[in-house]
Amino acid sequence: MSATHTSLGRGRDRRLLIGLMFVGFISLGLPDGLLGVAWPSIARARGVGVESLGTLLIAFSAGYLTISVLSGRILAALGVGRLLAVCASITGMSLIGFATVPLWWLLLIVAAALGAGGGAIDAGLNAYAAAHTGPRVLNWLHACFGVGATLGPAIMTATIATGQPWQLGYALVGGGQLALAAVFALTRKRWEDGAIAPAAVPGEAARHTSLRATASLPAVWLSILTFAIYTGLEVTVGQWSFSLFTIGRGVPAILAGQWVSLYWGSLTLGRVLMGFVAGRVAPRAMLWAGAAGALLGALLIALGAGYLADVAGLLLMGLSLAPIFPLLIATTAGRVGRAHADNAIGMEIAAATAGGALIPWLIGQAVGLGGVGLVGLGIVIAATLYLACYAALSVLRQPAA
Fold first, then answer.
1. CB 238 within 8 A of CB 363
2. Assign residue 277 a region: left if phi > 0, alpha if psi is -120 to 50, beta otherwise?
3. Are both 2-186 and 211-394 of the same fold?
4. String of DSSP letters for 179-190
5. Among 292, 347, 258, 397, which residue's Cα sits nearest to residue 72?
6. Are 206 and 198 in contact (CB under 8 A)?
7. pLDDT tens-digit series, residues 185-218
8. Which one-letter DSSP state was computed for residue 244?
9. pTM above the 0.70 mark?
10. Confidence of residue 320 (pLDDT cuts 50, 70, 90)
11. What would you report as the CA-atom Rg of the chain, rounded to the nearest whole angstrom?
12. Cα–Cα distance between 291 and 285 in angstroms, integer?
């Protein structure tokens, strides 16, 4: 009877922790959506031009990158429960800071703190999920980010549309984040007590190692490059396709906006669907299919063969890209070894953040020189580079035990 009760208790704890992971990833997506809608109002309130958004994003990315790289060491020192509680508190206070700090330079500091808190939650939850769950949960986890990114604009739009100040939107989401931090604090011991058993990597014991030792592995650097290019590809399609269609091809703005929404929707839906497929199809097969499908979708977009080809290319890219990020996270331990996985995942998350900023910026520079028509070519080049990187990753030998 006691064993049965223990098993039932662990089952409840497992469901609770997985649910909290999902909520945590929804919370990661919310600030991105808030900023896009609120930025013109923020810029006016802080006395800066709208072009200053780039400076704000650099501050955010600096915090995100720094903490992501160090997240393996922080995770080993604090444990995942305390890490989540502390960093959710930081992001909650930072979001409230967006609504309250009166000076631009203070807002840059708040943005860096928001990035640091988000980077730690992102890397910590990815590392924990990769070690304790499987591809199904990881796909659904990343689908939850899309849910948050969708809810953020809706919250801010509703706030402004009802005549309320934009600060209220940030205060509401910040308050929700502080409530989540309290839940993480109350459940901190459950994250460590084995409610979710570690996922086995054959021949390896779970242990932590130094960041320097992890950085000495060639597989880590190839993984870093792969994550940077993948994320740059995903973000480029989302950020630049609207300009390609409207400016370069004369598509009406409302229609082009709907197409871009279809891309993000197909990416989120694809991750939900791949969660059901995971476990029945090998991750390697899904990753190869995703890489090939993304390249085909990129070619359809670049050809400019008409509305049908453009929409088909966007939908194919969204569905093809959907499983890639979560599956690359899930297979990290197999590439670098369980002992290096937490450090490596933090470095991968940092690389993804850098690639998501750098590659769209490079394409922007090309557009400035040669026109918006180069966006399609840039997407094809990024998809080709990703396919080449994954091909190189796929032939790596798994580390010896």
1. no
2. alpha
3. yes
4. HHHHHHHHTTTT
5. 347
6. yes
7. 998 888 876 545 444 444 444 455 777 888 888 8
8. I
9. yes
10. very high
11. 21
12. 10
* 282 SS3 class: coil
Tell me the C-alpha distance between 353 and 330, whole Å: 18
Give the per-residue pLDDT at 205: 44
CB 112 within 8 A of CB 63: yes
- Map out the domains of the chain as residue ranges: 2-186, 211-394
Question: Which amino acid, 299?
Answer: L
Topology classification of domain 2-186: Growth Hormone; Chain: A; (1.20.1250)
pLDDT at res. 11? 67
Query: Quick check: 71 and 119 in contact, CB under 8 A?
Result: yes
Q: Is 48 helix (H, G, I), strand (E, B) or coil?
A: coil
Q: What is the mean pLDDT of residues 337-356?
A: 84
CA 401/CA 385 separation, integer angstroms? 31
Q: Contact, 271 vs 143, CB < 8 A?
A: yes
| Chain length of the chain | 401
Query: What CA–CA distance (Å, rounded) separates 82 from 64?
Result: 18
Higher pLDDT, 136 or 27: 27
Mean pLDDT computed over 351-362: 84
Is 353 in contact with 119 (CB distance < 8 Å)? yes
For the cut 90, the answer to whether the pLDDT of residue 56 exceeds it is no
CATH number belonging to domain 211-394? 1.20.1250.20
